[in-house]
Amino acid sequence: MKKYQAKETKLLSDKLSLNIILGALDNKDMGFYDKITPAQQKQLSPFLLNRYMSIVKGSEDLASYYLLATNQNVNIMYFDLAKHPKLIWQLLCTASPGMGKHFHQWVGFKKKDASKNNNIKLLAKLYPLRKKDEIECLASMTTKQEIKKLLEEHGITEKDIL
To answer: Phi, psi at residue 51, to the nearest 5°?
Structure first.
């Protein structure tokens, strides 16, 4: 316990360490939110902490537990409760099994494929009366070479469109 209290002296600095924040969540420290300054409370991003808490490295059982507990305890009503950061903090604390500190891995958002976007733009110019979902479906089935051939057949260069 004293080890954790020694870390609390670091909380007086302006910036909070992600390790301290996630450690407090793993240790189910419900009072952590009240211990930090209002400026530090503003640094906490409940949405990002929610993502961090849902993924943990370790055994498959532990990883499954964190994912399911975060989903069940926090995700279900997240946007209804998003205006209450202290409550979100407490809900995130309940997602931890209280088995000590774990490594929480960040899983980023899926990046959009730039070449696919270009294909969509090209096909949208070729078929202006088609719906967006039809164009996206066509772009997913059509290769870059096929699109170039279509453009040549219509007498259009890629540079004219992009």
So the answer is: -65, -45
* Token pair belonging to 119: 């294909």
- Biggest distance spanned by C-alpha atoms of the chain: 75
Global confidence as pTM? 0.58
Are residues 92 and 25 in contact, defined by beta-carbon separation less than 8 angstroms? yes
Which residue shows structure tokens 């931890």? 96
The residue extents of the domains of the chain are 2-95, 114-161
DSSP string computed for 21-65: HHHHHHTT-TTHHHHS-HHHHHH--HHHHHHHHH-B-S-HHHHHH
Per-residue pLDDT of 133-147, as tens digits, reads 888 888 888 888 888
